[in-house]
UniProtKB/TrEMBL annotation:
Subunit structure: Homodimer which binds Holliday junction (HJ) DNA. The HJ becomes 2-fold symmetrical on binding to RuvC with unstacked arms; it has a different conformation from HJ DNA in complex with RuvA. In the full resolvosome a probable DNA-RuvA(4)-RuvB(12)-RuvC(2) complex forms which resolves the HJ.
Binding site for Mg(2+) 2: 69
Active site residues of this protein: 9, 69, 142
Cofactor, free-text remark: Binds 2 Mg(2+) ion per subunit.
Keywords, in A-Z order: Cytoplasm, DNA damage, DNA recombination, DNA repair, DNA-binding, Endonuclease, Hydrolase, Magnesium, Metal-binding, Nuclease
Chief localization: cytoplasm
Family annotation (Pfam families): RuvC (PF02075)
GO MF annotations, alphabetized: crossover junction DNA endonuclease activity; DNA binding; magnesium ion binding
Annotated organism of origin: Solirubrobacter phytolaccae
Gene3D superfamilies for this protein: Ribonuclease H-like superfamily/Ribonuclease H
Protein purpose: The RuvA-RuvB-RuvC complex processes Holliday junction (HJ) DNA during genetic recombination and DNA repair. Endonuclease that resolves HJ intermediates. Cleaves cruciform DNA by making single-stranded nicks across the HJ at symmetrical positions within the homologous arms, yielding a 5'-phosphate and a 3'-hydroxyl group; requires a central core of homology in the junction. The consensus cleavage sequence is 5'-(A/T)TT(C/G)-3'. Cleavage occurs on the 3'-side of the TT dinucleotide at the point of strand exchange.
Family to which the UniProt record says this protein belongs: Belongs to the RuvC family.
Subcellular location(s) per record: Cytoplasm
Name of protein: Crossover junction endodeoxyribonuclease RuvC
Length: 168
């Protein structure tokens, strides 16, 4: 089974993305980076830029799935609202291309990658580096988080496909 997953760590200023391929039990990185938008720019333009770049990534890599990190509300509701908008345009881009979009909580992603839902950013970066056999730590942390989301989904893709075959 060969599965390509686009992982997204949503944000208005910085949306991390990571593209991985899962083939024969091994996950490899195809791409990773950050979609940046400028503070002070109209919110609609910022969201349009994120949407456009995600569409470009989908068109370039033709993923079977898009995996998006769920919102972490913390104490800043205004920030969470903005992240939700960025998350929405990512889901829209996937929906426009009829690509399945799955969501994972930060704890699910950390557990899938490190074994602990309370892992810190550096621990996630190190495990992403190890799991993908990268020569250096993936940076910035938004890109590392997006790769972690993609790994989380890719490692569950085989199980999900088997479950779908059984229930069909």
């Amino acid at each position: 089974m060969h599965v390509i997953v686009l992982g997204i760590d949503p944000g208005v200023a910085n949306t991390g993305y990571g593209v991985v391929a899962h083939q024969r039990g091994r996950v490899v990185a195809l791409d990773g980076g950050v979609i940046e938008t400028r503070a002070g720019t109209d919110a609609g333009l910022r969201l349009a830029h994120i949407h456009q770049r995600v569409c470009e990534l989908i068109d370039e890599y033709n993923p079977e799935a898009v995996a998006v990190e769920d919102l972490y509300f913390g104490s800043n509701a205004r920030s969470a609202f903005a992240v939700g908008q960025a998350r929405g345009v990512v889901i829209l881009a996937a929906g426009q291309r009829a690509i399945r979009c799955s969501s994972y909580t930060p704890q699910q992603v950390k557990t899938a990658v490190t074994g602990s839902g309370r892992a810190g950013k550096e621990q996630v970066q190190r495990m992403v580096q190890t799991l993908l056999s990268l020569p250096e730590l993936p940076t910035p942390d938004h890109a590392a988080d997006a790769l972690a989301v993609a790994i989380c989904h890719a490692n569950g893709a085989s199980l999900q496909a088997a479950m779908e075959r059984v229930t069909a």
